[in-house]
Amino acid sequence: MEANYTISKIPKDERPREKLLRHGADTLTNSELLAIVIGFGSKKDSAITLSQKIIYNNNKGLLNIAEANADILKSFNGINDAKAAKILAVAELSKRISREKVDKTKITSPQNVSALLLEEMRYLKKEVFKTVLLDTKNNIISINDVSVGCLDSTVVHPREVFVDAIKNSSSAIILVHNHPSGEVEPSSEDINITDRIIECGKIIGIRVLDHIIIGDGNYLSFKEHGYM
Q: Parallel, antiparallel, or unpaired: how do β-strands 172-178 and 219-221 relate?
């Protein structure tokens, strides 16, 4: 765990805001970055100490921010509506920045897809099935949500998979879904639905290049592991 300091005891040049301006944001710890967002702590805790309590709660790290809502954040002494709103706004901006990276991105490997979607999907509590739509040069046209399932399964119909691909004149698609358990091994259901979608794609004339399962910090490519 990062050291617990009060702001007043830290040399001015090493205080989070000054440190960021002098040395860059990448030199700050997670707690220091969050402390800047929070601005100030409470009578009991400095902004850094309060940030540490949020990040290290239940040893979940940044997941405590990614999964947070206003009520959860306000359960920490020193976080009011204004501070909770700031934290939630930063979390949402980070997700939107990740999505902006999709524009004009060319897919050459499963790692490209993982780089775009892993951080967004690894924390989801339900299975979400997405399609990555590609043009003839494997540039991304868009990434679309197809379905949201319950905690451990999702129902996907090939019709829903291809409707946006047809509308956007996609040449190929990549299937992506997450496993809330964090494990990436495909289930028999995952394999069966992939086979169905591939066969439908052959009829329609849209290639299915891969199916990627997102876990907790890792992923599995059906193509790389011989499932298709």
A: unpaired
Q: Provide the pLDDT confidence category of residue 3 given band limits of 50, 70 and 90.
A: very low
**What whole-number distance in Å separates Cα of residue 50 and Cα of residue 2?**
12
Distances in whole angstroms, Cα of residue 180 to Cα of each of 54, 70, 99, 215: 22, 22, 20, 7
Buried b (16+ CB within 10 A) or exposed e, 83-118: bbebbeeeeeeeeeeeeeeeeebebeebebbbebbb
**Residue 12 predicted with pLDDT over 50:** yes
Q: What is the DSSP letter of 59?
A: G
| Best CA proximity match to 121, nearest among 187, 55, 190, 215 | 215
Q: Are 168 and 200 in contact (CB under 8 A)?
A: no
CA-CA distances (angstroms) from residue 67 to 12, 16, 119, 177?
Answer: 33, 24, 12, 18
In degrees rounded to 5, what are phi and psi of residue 128? -120, 130
Token pair of 32 as six digits: 């220091």
In whole angstroms, give the CA distance from residue 126 to residue 112.
23
Is the whole model's pTM more than 0.70, yes or no? no
Query: Is a pLDDT exceeding 80 seen at residue 18?
Result: yes
Pick from 128, 121, 14, 37: nearest CA to 87: 37
Using one digit for the tens of pLDDT, what is the confidence trace for 66-114?
A: 888 999 999 999 999 999 999 999 988 887 776 665 555 789 999 999 9
